[in-house]
C-alpha cells in the first residue's frame, strides 16, 4: 500500500506536476486558456471556487446561493445579447455542454420527428457532431463559401421535414468570421425550425466590439428568429474553467432541455443540464469574476484584445511566407504558409520560444494553418517578434517530409479496424514509440502533425482515439512515480 503524503509533500508534488503544463497566465498560450492579465481578479475567483467547491447545484432549494449567482450571470448576459425580458438561461460546464443541450432540447421539442436532423455549416464546432453522435441526430453538413462563412441559401435548401435545428457561428472557431445569421435564422423560422447561434467564443467580445464602433454582423437576439445562443464565461469573460451559458429567447424554448424522473424509489430527479451533481465552484468563480470586472472593465479588456488582434493580423500579413485565412472579426486569427514554409514547423518553433499556437490540419482542399485565440494579456509586439524568428527558423529547416512507405501504410488502414499492432507501427513512424516500447511524447510535434495531415479525417480520428487510449492507462502500481 502507498503511504499518505504530508500536505507539504502534496503541494510540492502538485507544483512539480504543473511544470510540464502550458502556462495559463501571461498571454502566451493562445488556445485552451484565456487571460485577462488581472492578477487580483484571478485570485478572487480562485477564492470563490474554493469557497463553493463543496456546494451542489443539483438542488437549487438546498443551495439557493448558486441559483442566485446563476440568475445574476444570465441577467448580465441579457444586456450583451440583446435579450428580451423573456430570455432565460442555464449555466453549463462549458461550450460543448451548451451546444449539446441546444441540440437535445431541439430534438426533444419535436417528438413528432422520428429521425431528427440538424443543418450546420462545415465550419460548425465539432461539439455539434458530438451532439449528433450522442443523441442519434443526423448532422447535415453544408459547405461554406470561399469567404468561409455559412452559405445561407444552401443551408435553407438543406432544411427538410426532419430538421429540428439550424446552427450558425459568431464567429466560427477555425477562421474567426461571423456567419450570416439573419438570413439563416429567417430560413429556419420559415420552416418552423429553431436557430441556434454558437457564440461560445465571441459572445463576450462581439457586443463590446460593436460598442467600440467596430463593424459586427448581426447575431444576437436582436435578430428576430434566433431562438438560442451559447456563450462561454471561461473564455472572454475570463472566468475559471467550467462555466458557459445556454440562453433561450423564452422559457418555453428551454423547457424540453430539462430532465425529470420520478419512476424509481429514490428522490425525484430534476436536471437543467447534462450533469446532476454540479460543483458550485465554477458558478461562484464566474460570478465573482463578472462582478469584479464589470461592464466597463469588459469594454476595456475587449478593446485591448481587439487591438492586439489587429496588430497581430497586420503583422502576419506583412510576413513573407504567411497569409491570413480570413480577416478576423473577433479575436481569432488563422494563417496559412506558402512556398517551402511548413506551418507545423512554425508551430514547433513558436513553442521553442515559449508561445503556444494551435496547428489546424488540412480539410477538404484547404491547407493546414496555425490558429491563435488572442487574450487581453497577449503582447502583440512580443508575439510578432517571436513569430518572425520562428518563420525564419522554419524556412531554414524546410518542410517536414512524410516517408512514402508510411503514407502508403496510411492508405491501407481501415479506421474501423485499427488495432494495436497497426497503431504501434504508426507510433514508430511518428516518433512516438518510447525506448521501452511504450508511448513517448516527442519534443517536436511537426512530424506527428505532418503524418496526421496525410491521413483522411476518419483515420485521424481513429489514430487519435487510440493515442488517447494509450495515454490514459493507469500505472501498474498507484503513485509509483510519486504522483
Explain what this protein looks like in three dimensions:
The chain is of the alpha/beta class and 483 residues long. 42% of the residues lie in helices and 12% in strands. It has helices at residues 7-18, 39-52, 64-80, 95-108, 126-135, 152-158, 181-190, 206-211, 251-254, 280-318, 343-352, 380-397, 404-412, 420-429, 446-454, 457-471, and strands spanning 88-92, 117-121, 138-142, 163-169, 194-198, 228-232, 244-248, 259-261, 269-271, 322-324, 332-337, 358-360, 369-373. The strands form 3 sheets. It has a 7-stranded mixed sheet, sandwiched between helices. Strands 10-11-13-12 form a 4-stranded antiparallel sheet, covered by helices on one side. 45% of the residues are buried. The model has no long low-confidence stretch (mean pLDDT 94).
* Residues in β-strands, percent: 5-15%
Physical arrangement of strands within the biggest beta sheet: 1-7-6-5-4-2-3
- Our count of helices gives 16
Biggest beta-sheet profile: 7 strands, mixed
SSE order: HHHEHEHEHEHEHEEHEEHEEHEEHHHHH
What's the β-strand tally? 13
Large-scale geometry: globular
Class derived from helix and strand content: alpha/beta
The mean pLDDT is: 94
Low-confidence stretches: none
Distance between the termini: 14 Å
Helical residue percent band = 40-55%
Radius of gyration from the alpha-carbon trace, in angstroms: 23 Å
Amino acid at each position: 500500500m502507498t503511504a499518505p503524503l504530508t500536505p507539504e509533500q502534496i503541494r510540492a508534488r502538485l507544483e512539480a506536476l504543473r511544470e510540464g503544463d502550458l502556462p495559463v497566465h501571461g498571454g502566451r498560450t493562445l488556445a485552451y486558456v484565456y487571460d485577462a492579465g488581472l492578477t487580483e481578479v484571478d485570485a478572487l475567483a480562485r477564492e470563490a471556487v474554493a469557497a463553493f467547491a463543496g456546494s451542489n447545484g443539483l438542488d437549487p432549494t438546498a443551495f439557493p446561493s448558486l441559483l442566485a449567482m446563476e440568475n445574476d450571470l444570465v441577467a448580465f448576459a441579457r444586456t450583451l445579447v440583446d435579450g428580451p425580458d423573456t430570455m432565460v438561461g442555464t449555466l453549463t460546464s462549458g461550450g460543448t455542454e451548451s451546444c449539446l443541450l441546444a441540440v437535445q432540447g431541439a430534438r426533444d421539442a419535436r417528438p413528432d420527428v422520428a429521425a431528427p436532423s440538424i443543418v450546420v455549416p462545415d465550419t460548425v464546432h465539432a461539439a455539434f457532431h458530438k451532439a449528433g453522435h450522442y443523441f442519434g441526430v443526423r448532422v447535415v453538413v453544408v459547405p461554406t463559401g470561399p469567404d468561409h462563412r455559412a452559405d445561407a441559401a444552401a443551408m435553407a435548401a438543406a432544411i427538410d421535414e426532419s430538421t429540428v435545428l439550424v446552427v450558425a457561428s459568431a464567429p466560427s472557431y477555425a477562421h474567426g468570421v461571423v456567419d450570416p445569421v439573419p438570413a439563416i435564422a429567417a430560413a429556419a423560422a420559415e420552416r418552423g425550425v429553431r436557430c441556434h447561434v454558437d457564440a461560445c467564443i465571441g459572445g463576450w467580445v462581439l457586443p463590446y466590439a460593436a460598442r467600440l464602433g467596430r463593424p459586427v454582423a448581426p447575431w444576437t437576439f436582436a435578430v428576430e428568429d434566433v431562438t438560442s445562443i451559447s456563450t462561454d464565461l471561461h473564455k472572454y469573460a475570463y472566468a475559471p474553467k467550467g462555466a458557459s451559458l445556454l440562453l433561450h429567447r423564452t422559457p418555453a424554448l428551454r423547457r424540453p432541455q430539462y430532465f425529470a424522473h420520478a419512476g424509481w424509489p429514490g428522490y425525484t430527479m430534476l436536471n437543467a443540464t447534462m450533469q446532476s451533481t454540479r460543483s458550485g465552484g465554477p458558478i461562484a468563480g464566474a460570478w465573482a469574476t463578472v462582478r469584479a470586472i464589470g461592464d466597463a472593465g469588459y469594454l476595456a479588456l475587449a478593446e485591448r484584445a481587439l487591438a492586439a488582434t489587429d496588430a497581430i493580423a497586420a503583422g502576419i500579413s506583412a510576413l513573407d511566407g504567411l497569409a491570413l485565412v480570413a480577416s478576423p472579426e473577433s479575436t481569432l486569427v488563422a494563417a496559412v504558409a506558402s512556398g517551402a514554409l511548413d506551418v507545423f514547423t512554425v508551430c514547433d518553433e513558436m513553442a521553442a520560444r515559449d508561445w503556444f499556437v494551435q496547428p489546424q490540419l488540412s480539410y477538404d482542399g484547404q491547407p493546414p494553418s496555425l490558429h491563435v485565440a488572442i487574450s487581453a494579456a497577449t503582447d502583440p509586439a512580443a508575439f510578432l517578434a517571436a513569430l518572425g524568428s520562428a518563420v525564419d527558423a522554419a524556412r531554414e529547416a524546410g518542410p517536414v517530409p512524410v516517408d512514402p512507405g508510411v503514407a502508403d501504410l496510411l492508405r491501407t488502414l481501415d479506421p474501423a479496424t485499427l488495432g494495436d499492432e497497426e497503431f504501434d507501427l504508426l507510433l514508430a513512424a511518428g516518433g512516438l514509440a518510447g525506448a521501452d516500447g511504450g508511448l513517448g511524447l516527442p519534443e517536436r510535434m511537426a512530424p506527428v502533425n505532418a503524418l496526421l495531415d496525410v491521413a483522411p479525417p476518419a483515420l485521424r480520428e481513429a489514430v487519435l482515439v487510440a493515442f488517447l487510449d494509450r495515454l490514459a492507462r493507469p500505472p501498474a502500481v498507484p503513485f509509483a512515480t510519486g504522483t
